[in-house]
Amino acid sequence: MEWLLLALIAPLLWAVVALIDDNLLRGLYRSPVLAALVSGICGMAPMLSLVWLNIQPTTVAVVSLAGLAGLLTVVYYYFYFQALEYDAPSVVISLFSLAPVALPFFAHFLVGENLKIMQIIGFAIVLFFTFMLAAVDVKKFRFSKALLPISIAAILLDGVLLSEKYVYQHVNFYSGFMFFSLGMGVGGLLLVILMILRNFNKPFHFKKSKGLRFIVTALIFVAITEVINIAAEFTSNLAVSKGPVSLVEVIQNIQPLYMLTLALLLYPFFPKYFREARYGRVRFKFLMMAGIMVGVALTVVGKI
């Protein structure tokens, strides 16, 4: 059950990343494109280990699929950052629960994972509470603007996870992760080209009045965030390589609970940086997240 521990650690790391991302997007980056670009370029960093480690030879198909998974990761990062412009991090991340709703069915047909009735019930519960969390006005059937970009991101995430699972079934973890990292770098470079074509020449919210100290502090936080994000990607990929892909993704839905708890704990010390605690509806969010976790628990029990 090593994969279970890994699947619980990755969302904790991503919870920290999301809380920092929220502030970077509002205070530093001018566009979700730039935010995804930075994550993509930094995602190549693990490839530095190729200086002293060797990869396992494999087929072009496996390399291409791993690279595609990395590239699609950068694309879904873009939609994730776009969603952060519309809603608080815990809500945005909770909406990612839509991904495991479809993933088990894809996994059943594409990589042969079996489904049980308890899992299907669990996924239905996750879906219900996810839509309740996204609801702005239930009577008028209005939902958060973050729902559309996150729905797209969730579909992309399903493709990424299934691709990763296939890759790790055909090559060792280190080699597969290197190909994945290469794909992230390619995705970041494609976004660089996109920004050049769009003449996006003022990517940051730097102002002379904020001074050099602000710029240095901001870049330090960017570096810290990307290091933690790489660690989260590594841990998540390792969990996928060792366990059932659909369960790994479902268990990672604990991330918004981590996030909201961290925000509430840190808010008294840094009230300016944690809008989670300022926006209210905290009890409602916890209730909806509890419902999501019930669905997660039923899914896990149904698999055993």
General description of the model:
A two-stranded antiparallel sheet has the order 1-2. The radius of gyration is 19 Å and the shape is globular. 74% of the residues lie in helices and 2% in strands. By secondary structure, it is mostly helical. About 2% of the residues have low confidence.
How is the topology of this model organized?
Elements: H1 2-27, H2 32-42, H3 60-84, H4 89-95, H5 98-110, H6 117-134, E1 135-137, E2 142-143, H7 147-168, H8 173-197, H9 211-242, H10 245-251, H11 255-266, H12 275-278, H13 282-303
- Element-level helix/strand string: HHHHHHEEHHHHHHH
User: Termini distance?
Assistant: 11 Å
- Total strands: the figure is 2
Mean model confidence by pLDDT:
81
* Computed CA radius of gyration, to the nearest angstrom: 19 Å
The structure class reads: mainly alpha
Q: How many structural domains does the protein architecture include?
A: 1
Total count of helical runs of at least 4 residues: 13
Strand ordering within the main sheet: 1-2
Helix content, binned percent: over 70%
Q: Which geometry do the CA atoms define?
A: globular
Strand content: under 5%
Main pleated-sheet profile:
2 strands, antiparallel
Low-confidence regions = 137-141
In short:
This protein is an all-alpha fold and 304 residues long. Helices cover 74% and strands 2% of the residues.
